[in-house]
Design goal:
Elements (H helix, E strand, L loop, with lengths): L3 E5 L3 H12 L3 E5 L2 H14 L2 E3 L11 E3 L2 H4 L4 E4 L6 H8 L8 E4 L5 H11 L6 E5 L6 E5 L2 E4 L6 E5 L5 H8 L5 E3 L3 H6 L3 H10 L2 H7 L5 H4 L3 H20 L9 H8 L9 H4 L10 H4 L2 H14 L5 H14 L3 H4 L3 H4 L8
Parallel strand pairs: 1-2, 1-5, 2-4, 3-9, 5-6, 6-7, 10-11
Antiparallel strand pairs: 7-10, 8-9
Helix pairs in contact: 4-5, 8-11, 8-15, 15-16
């Protein structure tokens, strides 16, 4: 690989992706706002990106680290590694420098390509390709400035484009960089994300334990119990029914086998790093602020659209909204929110 690739977003996922692509021979430009990553850039300048994780090389440095989005967008291929809450501001940051030949991949997406397309249209800009992944490439955390952990080997992820008819082009563009498989459409990819099941439920069912341990809480150690697993199975059954009614494929891996392995640490030591991943630490954690208004709200709205009952999923979304003071079905990423763009996500 001898490509020039920009990564916008220098959190844990962005840093690990930068190291992975550098390891594979790409010329990487790593970019983020100064207030987001000045400590990380300083540490990387001295020691490279320090990484713990299978198949990754520690100590590599991207070709360029910059706070200038203009410099980053000199590359034609751009990977965006920011949380859903930062997507609109990131699109606005990129828009003045957007060129028709740009190809952009959101990692993960949560229907964020719709936001990027809307921002670009408002500013009279367009690009060659907008695509997103169904989930983050890495199960990862930032441990310290410039230091990250990836808890699982890199596996194949689904990709879809906005509009969905551009998905073959997305595979052609990004399939040589990352292990990808084409998804049928954006809606199907979003609904199949594992986070739709695990994050919101795990947080709400463990608020007492989270309050006790705070930032030291690890969901798959401290919160993994029979009740949580039963809830996951109920959510999984509801999601399958929704996808079936919508004529979409359910390709997400079943939750029970993984949970059984996580509960048997001696038999599965290879999952120890995943078990120990920190979070959530409260109602302001991204397991609520990202997953409630994005994946879970979209699942509930899809259930209503196709006349499927999803009482457990709806109850969790209602409870999260009541506890945080948010109306996720009004303000989240739903079919009403998609409006005329809905035709381009299926």
């Amino acid at each position: 690989m001898n490509e020039r690739i920009a990564i916008v977003g220098a959190g844990a996922a962005g840093m690990i992706t930068a190291a992975y692509l550098t390891q594979n021979g790409a010329e990487v430009i790593l970019c983020d706002l100064e207030e987001q990553c000045w400590e990380d850039f300083g540490a990387i300048s001295e020691l490279g990106i320090k990484i713990k994780g299978p198949g990754l090389v520690s100590g590599l440095r991207p070709a360029v680290m910059t706070h200038s989005i203009a410099e980053a967008m000199e590359a034609e291929c751009i990977l965006v590694c920011v949380s859903s809450g930062r997507q609109k501001k990131t699109a606005e940051w990129m828009a003045p420098w957007l060129r028709p030949e740009h190809k952009i991949l959101l990692m993960p997406g949560n229907l964020g390509t719709v936001i990027f397309a809307r921002v670009f249209r408002t500013q009279g800009k367009n690009c060659s390709l907008l695509a997103e992944l169904s989930e983050c490439l890495w199960a990862c955390r930032r441990l310290a400035p410039g230091h990250c952990i990836s808890a699982m080997p890199l596996g194949e992820k689904r990709i879809a484009a906005f509009p969905s008819e551009d998905t073959p082009k997305a595979m052609e563009t990004f399939g040589g960089l990352l292990p990808l498989k084409a998804g049928a459409n954006l809606a199907e990819d979003c609904l199949n994300s594992p986070n739709v099941l695990t994050h919101l439920s795990g947080t709400l069912l463990n608020l007492g334990g989270i309050a006790q341990k705070k930032e030291k809480f690890a969901l798959f150690v401290d919160g993994l119990n029979d009740g949580y697993i039963r809830c996951l199975k109920l959510l999984e059954e509801e999601r399958k029914e929704v996808l079936k009614a919508a004529g979409m494929e359910c390709y997400a891996a079943p939750v029970e086998p993984l949970m059984a392995k996580l509960r048997a640490p001696q038999a599965h030591p290879e999952l120890e790093a995943f078990r120990q991943l920190s979070g959530p630490d409260g109602l302001e954690h991204r397991y609520i602020t990202e997953d409630a208004p994005c994946g879970v709200a979209f699942l509930v709205s899809t259930a209503r659209r196709y006349g499927v009952k999803a009482p457990v999923t709806e109850a969790l979304l209602t409870l999260a909204g009541s506890l945080t003071g948010n109306d996720y079905l009004r303000d989240g990423r739903t079919w009403d929110w998609l409006a005329e763009d809905g035709a381009d996500v299926v």
